[in-house]
Amino acid sequence: DTGVSQDPRHKITKRGQNVTFRCDPISEHNRLYWYRQTLGQGPEFLTYFQNEAQLEKSRLLSDRFSAERPKGSFSTLEIQRTEQGDSAMYLCASSPQGGGGYGYTFGSGTRLTVV
Amino acid sequence: DQQVKQNSPSLSVQEGRISILNCDYTNSMFDYFLWYKKYPAEGPTFLISISSIKDKNEDGRFTVFLNKSAKHLSLHIVPSQPGDSAVYFCAVYTNAGGTSYGKLTFGQGTILTVHP
User: Fold this and answer.
1) Touching check for B115 and chain A: CB below 8 Å?
2) Cβ separation of A100 and B32 shorter than 8 Å?
3) Which of A9, A29, A33, B94 could bond A93 through an S-S bridge, CB–CB 3.0 to 4.6 Å?
4) In this predicted model, what pLDDT tens digit does every residue of B63-72 receive, in sequence order?
5) Across the interface, do B103 and A103 touch by the CB < 8 Å criterion?
């Protein structure tokens, strides 16, 4: 297993365009998380999946954001009508059941730049 | 409100000496406290954690101390090595009430530079 994979690594898009990111978690992990990190800040929680069910969404996740995890495997995060404020590193992480104390395994992230 | 704070944006240490990274939190109900290390262009990597029922956990050169009365967490790295140079994030984990899952809340990070 190669860990958590995220694609693409970098994305530059024009304001107003839609973008979609993909995350492939560690195969035996049933929990998947999306975080966002801006310069000088720590990662901020966006949303959480247990298998295919999206169980929590942060208020940071506006109506322009949608996340899915069909069949409880990979996940996608879509941002519609991108804004310059969406520029950030988008991180995906996965963990096994009860993984709180052992930490999550993060991917390398997708860096989004909205111009 | 910021539940987890790392008040030192950066720390510079000589190789072989001790690095001490600090973190303060506001909520006494957190279950676990964790440290992550992040290199440029990579995601955060889990380093070490401590349960809220303990006050110390050690793993090789890394020791985490938890002072619950002061709501303070620290990471000691001894001896520090140039390869330890990275951004260090403290994080807290708590189970969402009545559920079996939780989420991590991170501090802002401290940039550690270890000079040869």
Assistant:
1) no
2) yes
3) A33
4) 999 999 999 9
5) no
Which residue is it, tokens 């994080």? B91
Q: Is the pLDDT of residue B96 over 80?
A: no
Q: Please give the Cα distance from B85 to B106 (Å, whole number).
A: 19
Give the pLDDT score at B97: 59
Within chain A, which residues score under 50 in pLDDT? none
State whether residue B99 sits within 8 Å of chain A by CB. Answer: yes
* Cα B7–Cα B12–Cα B14 angle in degrees, nearest 5: 145
pLDDT at residue B28 greater than cutoff 70: yes
Question: What residue of B is the nearest CA neighbor of A39?
Answer: B108
pLDDT of B94: 78
Distance between A4 CA and the closest CA of chain B, angstroms: 10
d(CA B61, CA B49): 14
Is B44 in Cβ contact with A101 (below 8 Å)? no
**Measured distance CA(A98)–CA(A91) in Å, rounded:** 20
Give DSSP secondary structure letters for A13-43. Answer: E-TT--EEEEEE--TT--EEEEEEE-TTS--
Q: How many CB atoms lie within 10 A of CB B11?
A: 16
Q: Torsion-angle region of residue A51: left (phi > 0), alpha (psi -120 to 50) or beta?
A: left
Q: Which of helix, strand or coil describes residue A57? A: strand
The pLDDT value recorded for residue B93 is 86
